[in-house]
Design a protein that fits this description.
Layout: H1 2-8, H2 30-37, H3 43-52, H4 59-69, H5 94-105
């Protein structure tokens, strides 16, 4: 019970300034607070900044930057380009095969 009573007992007021006084207090206007916290739209300044510089980087440099910014996960990697294979064709023609048959098997 003694421990519970000690916890409930209020702490002694610390020496310092008295918060109940009005001296030095600045009255805040609700309108000023609203204007302070209102989001600012920087679109116009950003557009002016972007349109001011028309320098276009080299394509190799942009590719390098994009490669550096890609993640390491497989979903972030671009699909690999595979070369299309040509259908395999033989050097020999049908007539060459017939000629080989005749010579090898002896069929006239």
């Amino acid at each position: 019970r003694a421990a519970g009573a000690a916890r409930r007992r209020k702490r002694a007021p610390e020496p310092g300034r008295n918060k109940a006084t009005v001296k030095g207090r600045v009255v805040k206007s609700a309108i000023e607070e609203y204007h302070k916290k209102k989001p600012v739209n920087h679109l116009r300044e950003n557009l002016q900044y972007m349109l001011k510089g028309r320098l276009v980087a080299d394509k190799a440099i942009t590719e390098q930057v994009l490669a550096q910014n890609r993640g390491r996960k497989s979903k972030d990697q671009p699909p690999e380009k595979t070369e299309k294979k040509k259908p395999e064709s033989t050097v020999f023609t049908e007539e060459d095969f017939r000629k080989f048959e005749r010579e090898y098997f002896g069929i006239p």
